[in-house]
Amino acid sequence: MKNVFIKKGNESKQKEVDGKIFRLLQKSNNMEAIIAELDVGVESDRYFHEGEEFHLVLSGEIEYIVGDEVYRMEAGDSLWHVSDISHGAKNVGDEKAVYITISTPPTFM
After folding, report:
1. Tally of CA atoms within 13 A in the half-sphere of 88 that contains its CB
2. Domain ranges of the chain
3. What's the fold here for domain 13-104?
4. Residue 94 near residue 33 (C-beta atoms within 8 A)
């Protein structure tokens, strides 16, 4: 497989719904990397699927919920979890929250 470099703003796919933006950064047969933006007070849907995920908060504050566990995260915080437990994020700060999600296998976008 050849290296893939993508300049900011040239992502191949984007989902935008009710204060949520998900931009696909990279996708292969084994993983996908997404940058997510949540407006103040906005919560993502809850998902569960096979695999595992890693999240890294770039700015803002979120609560990331995995099953019954709630993790309050801010810039620089990271979280790994298996994906077959219901999970999702909520912006609990006073500015847009931006975080990266890397998941395997690629099932979101």
Report:
1. 12
2. 13-104
3. Jelly Rolls (2.60.120)
4. no
The answer to whether 70 and 87 have CB atoms below 8 angstroms apart is: no
Phi, psi of 29 (to 5 degrees): -70, -20
For 75-92, how does the pLDDT look when each residue is reduced to its tens digit (9 = 90+)? Answer: 999 999 999 999 999 999
For residue 39, how many C-alpha atoms fall within 13 Å in the half-sphere facing its CB?
Answer: 6
State the pLDDT confidence band at 1, using cuts at 50, 70 and 90.
low
Residues 6+ apart with CB under 8 A from 87: 46, 47, 48, 53, 64, 65, 66, 67, 81
Give the phi and the psi of residue 48 in degrees, each rounded to 5.
-150, 140
